Amino acid sequence: MNRKLLLLASVGLFLVTAPVSQVFSMTDTKSGTVMLENTVMTDADVNHAVKDVLAKDAEFTVISRDITVNTVNGVTNLGGKVDNAKAKADIEKRVVKIDGVKKVVNNIQVIDKK
Description:
Elements: H1 2-17, H2 20-24, H3 43-56, E1 67-72, E2 75-82, H4 85-95, E3 103-106, E4 109-110
């Protein structure tokens, strides 16, 4: 309880003391990623963001363990295996929305379990 209260107080203090332009540019609405204005993401940052989004998104939590991510110059390569084409397409749609991802190369294989 005390941690939540401290976090809320910290966020409130930041909002009160931060410049208005910085407050309004903190959260990217398309990906939900918190970014400060004029921040440049490295390929390692993009990899981390993609893995984090897939791991925390309830739709992808189970399959995200089997997905590989490698970003070079903003091009994010996805690999691994999923059970159906919809999961493959949904992952790509989600990843392309993440800050720093310029292009997605989706090499995820669909393995039909018959």
